[in-house]
Amino acid sequence: MVLPDADLDNTVNALMGAAYGSCGERCMAISVAVCVGDQAADALIAKLAPQIKALKVGPGTSPGLDMGRW
């Protein structure tokens, strides 16, 4: 749950780790994030979307990837 006064930098880091850490294959992988209020949601999406788009995904044997299949 993301409240309107949340520190968005910390929130984005936590969400990225929970969603994409270990390729999403761990028992604590995130399935949903709930924002309280439209402003909080818009602000979170504005910070989160570029980080998701910047993820480098590919075969796990390729160098320089953030996520890959092993």
Instruction: Return residue spans where pLDDT drops below 50 for at least 5 consecutive residues.
Output: none
Number of strands: 2
Measured distance between first and last alpha carbons: 32 Å
Radius of gyration: 14 Å
For this structure, the quaternary state is single chain
Mean pLDDT: 86
Biggest sheet: strand arrangement: 1-2
Q: Outline the biggest β-sheet.
A: 2 strands, parallel
Portion of residues in helices? 40-55%
Structural class: mainly alpha
Question: How large a portion of the residues is in β-strands, by DSSP E?
Answer: 5-15%
Q: Total domains, how many? A: 1
One letter per element, helices H and strands E, the order comes to: HHEE
Number of continuous helical runs: 2
Shape: elongated
Protein name: methylmalonate-semialdehyde dehydrogenase (CoA acylating)
Keywords: NAD, Oxidoreductase
GO biological process, one term: L-valine catabolic process
EC number: 1.2.1.27
Keywords:
two-stranded parallel sheet, oxidoreductase, NAD, mainly alpha, methylmalonate-semialdehyde dehydrogenase (acylating, NAD) activity, 70 residues, 9% strand
